[in-house]
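Our preliminary data section would be incomplete without showing what the modeling component actually yields. Below, a chain of 731 amino acids is followed by its predicted structure, encoded as tokens that our downstream tools consume directly.
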Amino acid sequence: MAGLRTVAAIALTLAVLTVLGTDMTHTVAGAMTAMVATFAIKEKQVRDQAVTLALGLPVALAAVALSTLLNSRIVTGDAFFILLIFAAVYCRRFGDRGTALGLIGFQIYFVSLFVGASVDGLPMLCLTLVLAFACSAVVRFAVVPETPQRILRRLRDAFRARLAQLVASQLELLDAGPEELDGVVADLRERTARLHEAALMIQDRLEEGTRDTASAALLERRIADAEIATERLGVLLLNARSAERANTLTLHLPDATVATSGPNLIAADDKVTATLRRDLHALHHLVSHPTTADRGTAVAHVRNRLLGYRDEEKLPRASTAVQDVFRGLGEVARAVLGLRLALDGPQDESNDSPATTRSREEFDAEDVALAGAEEEPEEDRTGLQRPTTRAACQVAVGSVLAMVGGEFLSSQRWYWAVLTCWVVFLNTASTGEILVKGYRRVVGTVLGVIAGVALAGLVGGHTWIAFALLLLFIFAMFFTAPLSYALMSFFVTAMLGMLYTLLHTYSLDVLVLRIEETALGAVCGIIAAMVVLPVHTDSRTDELLGTVLDRLGDVVSAAVEQLCGGPASDLLGRARDLDTALDDLRASTKPLTHPITPLRGRRRTARYLVALLETSAFHARSLAATAELVPDSRNVAADPRLGRAGQRIARNIEVVAAHVRDEPTGAKVGAGASIAAILKEEGSRTPPTGSVASRVLRHLQRVDEGVVGLARPLGVPVDDGTEPQPAGLRE
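Predicted structure:
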């Protein structure tokens, strides 16, 4: 949508400027301004977008005027450019509006340098900027409107589509042969991860996209139920298909493979397999056709049958592992029903079975509890302002180096080096991230230059073909930005080739210079990041690892407290905070796991730690979802005996987190008896397989094993009689 909106704004600007008979230089300037004015604004509320766009126009006019007036005064102009770069980065501390205004100021200054603005042409250039901003406003608010409600609605549809894709993968897993199993499981993991990503995107838009807090909490709950239940069904299917026990599908340990030599418990009974295949097809229909899922008694009969698997007497006669699959199928059907109630409202209940009626009553009780929940205050985030100051200093120093070096390469196009130095600092927080981003930018630029040479020769003097390719490359730039930075850089450079063609300044020497300036800017950025207030990759990953452990401890402790009968709290909100922290950690470890890294041992350790944390996060989310049912559910009762297990896990997490932060405590991670054994010591019976209690114990056990598994590669002492050798991310 961002790419479509930007392309539409540029196209409208080109149309207006063409009607007015503007020359090519101002047409290009207008197109670039429309692009900046559109993509720079990231705020969610329409009113905030309008205010930022209105403030951006005087900022843009001031930037282009100062650039034009100072262009002939080299020292003064360069000094002001450096101050502008510092201010643009420093403004990020003021949120989305500060980031947008800083980006507009820098980019419009760059546009004036690119088109060679002069004092005589300044009035016309200012008028062009005004028209470009006006066209951007028309497209944003009228042609391709963006409201939080529309975005949330698209994300909800995307979540349903991802859910249907995941169920389709589970169908493939059911019938996959041994030679196909690895590929099917890989698809299953990828689709599970994408479903989780869609859930996180919805979480980010709930507050603005729903009418009140209760509606947001209800939708958050139903999305989490559907995500967790569907992932669990995949795990149960995989366990029944293979001799290997799986814990999660979102991320697997490095170099692990699925055992294919074990017995396929599902295929052992053709009748059971046929029943399961039929029910998975029915579930896929319910998910992928939400608008017709309540029409007719046949569909109601299918839904009733699936929900009936929540009752033990309705399960088919089969092995325990296969019965677990049918139990999981019933839980997914329940989650899908709850999701449809939250998204589509009340439905026909005339053909409900007792199992379906019971599920609806459970949802009604949960809805009442969620409506009465109090909203927790947000955390103070003022401490996050400090990185903006450091980044501003680093970018300023790097830009000075790039400016000096760029002048030696070209006195006319030195700004390419400065632009690259600026770009490599965007959305990066450590030296390693900057190094990887600079490397990818250079690779993308080299490939883009090759494409630009070929396209410029084909386009020649065909102006409108060049403009059409320009719009295509801009859309591709936005579309590929989340996927590959190198690919995005490729389209940026190819787009610049079209711009040079339109300005009749294209030559092979110019594009080669583009490569040289890009490489220089990347090197200057890396040098500045290493010298000026450096944040080393290991320090950054350790900091984020500590944050993930803190969030994990919060979720597990709060969930266990509520499972023990404690007060209700926003457990799913805590779980989403854990997911966000884990995403940040995963991004920070990319320099360690990149294929070009020479430290293979550290690469494997980083992947191993993230995999363990991903597994622990899944089970923590499942614990949170189960614990939130305690106050109002008929199936989940509080059990104070879980407190001891929760205390051990929380203590182990604290020990590992203290070690990561280099806080000497002398404590060891406890790795004694299993969680079930701890409860058995207190005289508790082992809960029956498939019950909620057994599921809770399984999740606690997996979190406990995950934390102990973290201790060994990080070099944390374990009290099982062994002293691990120090390893981990900092080795």
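The radius of gyration is 29 Å. Residues 250-261, 374-385, 721-731 have pLDDT under 50 and may be disordered. Preliminary results of this kind motivate Aim 1 of the renewal.
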